[in-house]
Amino acid sequence: MDATTANSQRRPFSIKLWPPSENTRKMLVERMTNNLSSPTIFTRKYRSLSKEEAAKNAEEIEDAAFTIANQHYEKEPDGDGSSAVQLYARECSKLILEILKKIPKSEDKEISISEVVPTVQETFFDISKGKRAFIEAEEAQELLKPLKESGNSYSKICFSNRSFGIHAARIAGPILAALKDQLKEVDLSDFVAGRNEAEALDVMNIFSEALEGSNLKFLNLSDNALGEKGVRAFGKLLQSQTNLEELFLMNDGISQEAANAVSELVPSTEKLKVLHFHNNMTGDEGAVAIAEIVKRSPLLEDFRCSSTRVGSEGGSVLCEALGMCSHLKKLDLRDNMFGPEVGLVLCKALSKHENLTEIYLSYLNLEDEGAIAIANALKDSAPSLAVLEMAGNDITAEAASAIASCIAAKQLLAKLSLGENELKDEGAIQIARALEGHSHLIEVDMSSNALRRAGARVLAQTVLHKDEFKLLNVNGNFISEEGVDELKEIFKKSPEMLASLEDNDPEGEDEDDEEDEEKESGDEGKDVEDELESKLKNLDVKQEASLDTPDSN
C-alpha cells in the first residue's frame, strides 16, 4: 500500500498566542537577566547576581517555565493559548523570586536552577523529526528504548514520518501494549509509506491490537492511504475508543466504502471535538456516512471536510448535519462541488453557530445566490468571526452588498479571502468601506477579481494605517501601470504589506470597462476621478442603508 503523497496540506489560518516566537523568548531571557543582575526592590533585599550568573539562570528559568506552560497547552490544544501565556509569565516571575531567595550570603557558592525547579518529566515521545525514512527491527529496538524505561511519563507519542516494516512493528507492538494505559495522544500519520499493501495492513493490525483498549483523546491516522482495508485494519483500536476528542483521517483514500467503515467502527463520538477528513475521495455517498458521524458528535468544535469530491447531494446532507453541532468554532469545507443549492442549506446551519471563529468556504461553486444566503446568515450570527474565506466561488458585484454588510458586523475579523471571484471595482469598494473600522485586520486577499485602479486604490487606502495589518493581495487583476505605481507609492513606507503584482495584467480590461479606462488615461482623467468620488459617496450611502435595514430573510 504505497503512500507517497507528502503531507502538503496547508494549515488553516488560526490566531494563536502560544507558542511564543523565538525572538519573544530571547527578549524575555534578556529582561530576566537584567532583573537578576540590576538593582531592584528584590535584589536589594536578597542579593543580585553577576551578569554571567544572571544570564545562565535566566535561560534555565525561561526553559523550565516554557516546558511547564507547553505541557499545559498540550492538554488544551483548541484554546488560543492565552492560559499558557499567563502560566508562562507566572512561572518566570515565581522562579526569579525563588532564585533570589536561595542566593547564599557568601558569593563563593553558585545557585543552580535545579535547586528551585522540580524536575519536569518528559511526556511527549516524538521520532518524526529528521529525514523521512524506513525503519526496521534493529533501529526500532534502539529508537524506542525510552518507552521501555520504568516509570516513564510518556502520554503522547508521534511515529509520523518513519515507515515501519513488519519486523519493526513486531518490536513496537509489545512496547505500545505495555504503555497503552498511560497514552492519551497517538500520532501514526505517514507511518507505512512505501510499503506494499500486504505488509502495510499487517503493520496496521499489529499497532491496532497493541493499542486496543487504550483511553485516547487524540488519534491521527492521516497520510496512510488507508482505504476501506486500512480503516478496518485499525478496527480494534477504533472500536475500543470511548473518550476520543480529536480524530484525523486526512489524505487517506477515504472512499464511500471507507467512510462507511469509519462510521461503523467509531461508534462513540459523544466527546469528539475535532474531526478532519481533508483530501479524500469521499464523494456524495461517502459524505452521507460522514454526516452520520457528525450527527453523533454534539460537542464538535472543529470540522474539516475539504477536497473530498463531495457534490450537491452529499453536501446538502452534510450541511444539514452540521446544524446539529452548536459548539462549532472552525469549519472548513473548501474545494468541493457543492453549488449554490448547498449554500442555501448551509446558511440555515450557520445561523445556529454563535461560536464560529473561522470559516473556510472557498472553491464551492456557491455563485451569488449561495454567497448572499451565507453572508446574510453569518451577519446575524458568529459575532467573534476572525477568518472568512470565500475565494473562487464566481461571486460578482451583485453579492457585494450582502457580503459587505456581513463583514461590517464582524469587528474581530483578521483575515478575509475573496480572491478569484468577479467582484470588480464596485464590489471591492463596498468591501473596503465595510472594513474601515476593523482594527484587528491582518490580511485581505482580493486577487483575480477583475479590479482596476480605483478598486485597488480604495482597498490600499483602507488597510494602510491599521496597526495589525500585514498583507494586501490584489495580484492577478487589471490594474493600469499608473495604478500599480500608485499602489507602490501608497505602501512605500511598508512595501512588505503589498503582495507581488507579477500576475497583474494592465491590458486585461473587460469590454464593458474599456471606455472608462481610456478616459482615465486620457485628457478627461480629472472628470473621471470626480465621477469616481461621486460613486464612492453613493456606495457609502447604500452601505449605511443596508446596515440599518433588517434582513428581510
Provide an overview of this structure.
With 553 residues, this protein is α/β, with parallel strands linked by helices. Among the domains are: 22-101, Serum Albumin, Chain A, Domain 1 (Orthogonal Bundle), CATH 1.10.246.200; 122-268, Ribonuclease Inhibitor (Leucine-rich repeat, LRR (right-handed beta-alpha superhelix)). It has 21 helices and 15 strands. It has helices spanning 22-37, 41-45, 51-75, 82-101, 137-143, 145-148, 166-179, 197-211, 227-233, 235-239, 256-265, 283-295, 312-322, 340-350, 367-379, 400-408, 424-434, 453-463, 481-490, 514-521, 525-548; strands at 124-126, 133-135, 156-158, 162-164, 185-187, 218-220, 246-248, 274-276, 302-304, 330-332, 358-360, 387-389, 415-417, 443-445, 471-473. The strands form two sheets. It has a 13-stranded parallel β-sheet, with helices on one face. A two-stranded parallel sheet has the order 2-4. β8 (274-276), α12 and β9 (302-304) form a beta-alpha-beta unit. α18 packs parallel to α19 (481-490). The longest helix has 25 residues, at 51-75. The protein is globular. It starts with 21 loop residues before the first helix and ends in a 5-residue tail after the last helix. The model is unreliable at 2-12, 519-530 and 540-553 (pLDDT under 50). Residues 502-532 have a biased composition (Acidic residues). Residues 496-553 are annotated as: Disordered. Residues 533-545 have a biased composition (Basic and acidic residues).
